[in-house]
Amino acid sequence: xxxxISSEFMVVFSALVLIFVVVFTLYSGGSLxxxxxxxxxxxxxxxxxxxxxxxxxxLAGDGASYSFTPARVASDENITISDYAVSSERxxxxxxAPLLDGxxxxxxxxRGPVLITNNGxxxxxxx
Length: 127
Prior knowledge:
The chain is of the alpha+beta class and 127 residues long. The protein has one domain (2-126). The protein contains 1 helix and 7 strands. The strands form 2 sheets. A 4-stranded antiparallel β-sheet has the order 4-3-2-5, covered by helices on one side. A 3-stranded antiparallel β-sheet has the order 1-6-7, covered by helices on one side. A hairpin with a 2-residue loop joins strand 2 and strand 3. It starts with a helix and ends with a strand. 18% of the residues are buried.
């Protein structure tokens, strides 16, 4: 009788430990996914904001200028400009936004205020 109670206890205890491990794993994985999703949304927001500022200056025409300050850029985030795209890279996230024109004289955007000027269809970024 004692051996039967001991084996039943071990089965129930093992089942409870298994349930705990499954719940803990799901909870930890959900937190990591939420962190990654938050970083992806922030990267997309910043890439779209920079692309919108550059597109605005391009569409305004020759001689137009636009003062822009990237908001909430993380210290470990890199915003780069390549042909027809702005990309935002964070440690666990990446996002890109399209540009209307690839004639831009800079390859990255800093964290401070920048002045975007349209000089004959080429966008100059200073600041």
